[in-house]
Amino acid sequence: MSESATLYIVPTPIGNLDDISPRALTVLSEVDWIAAEDTRHTHKLLQHFSVNTRTLSLHEHNEDKRTAMLCQRLKDGEAVALVSDAGTPLISDPGFILVRRCREEGIPVVALPGPCAAITALSASGLPTDKFMFEGFLPPKTGPRKQVLEGLSERTFTTVYYEAPRRVLDTVQDVCETLGEHRHIVLAKELTKTFETYVDGAAKNVAEWLQEDPVRQKGEFVLMISPAAAQQKALPPEALSLLASLKPLLPLKKAAAIVAEHYNLKKNALYQAGLEMDGE
Description:
Elements: E1 7-9, H1 22-30, E2 33-36, H2 39-48, E3 54-57, H3 63-75, E4 80-83, H4 96-104, E5 109-111, H5 117-123, E6 132-137, H6 142-150, E7 158-163, H7 168-179, E8 184-189, E9 197-202, H8 203-212, E10 221-225, H9 237-246, H10 252-263, H11 267-279
Parallel strand pairs: 1-4, 1-5, 2-3, 2-4, 6-7
Antiparallel strand pairs: 7-10, 8-9, 8-10
Helix pairs in contact: 3-4, 6-7, 7-8, 9-10, 9-11, 10-11
């Protein structure tokens, strides 16, 4: 048996085709096979960049079967690239079973850096990024969805979700009901595309924005929920007063940092207090 070849994890653009990396194109061109979530979708990308590599499907319904076949091809010396429809494979997409099996059998796995909707949205959201949790998609039904959201009532870091267009309004309304109408959220849609949009504010205002025009409910969404509001009673009144004075003059992050240094307080607590002031 030949020495094992390599499984490459290759991110693809989430909208703007210019975001594909030269390294990704080289790998896609040189491997023996591309395992794609939807070969029809991937063929459009490959045709755009004149890549003629053979493809086969690997999705949630056939991953077990495909994994055995691909591992054997890798052991026989063939190289394989794994792609999803958009973004980084395995992030709310198939591929975990294949990667785990390759690791177990000593087959080299190389992951390329590249586009990821969750990270792209978070980096531009203005929400705290020093600690966050990505939880994929929320449950599609209201009851279980509210139960999950209720668990965020005291969470002290940013939470990131993907959401489908047919559910986005219901989900934001559930945020209002479970976490309060003034919970600060950011909704990002159509990232890297012509009509990329960020809607930032109290959950109630974001829900109203979605309702004003049904077209706004179309597209691919990333929903980001701010940490639970700081307990303002734990912050000295003079610190909150200084923060309120600085907010109109400086970015909130900078204002919070100045007050934190002056009173020897935590920046995150002051930042969240500033967000809560916006919701009042």
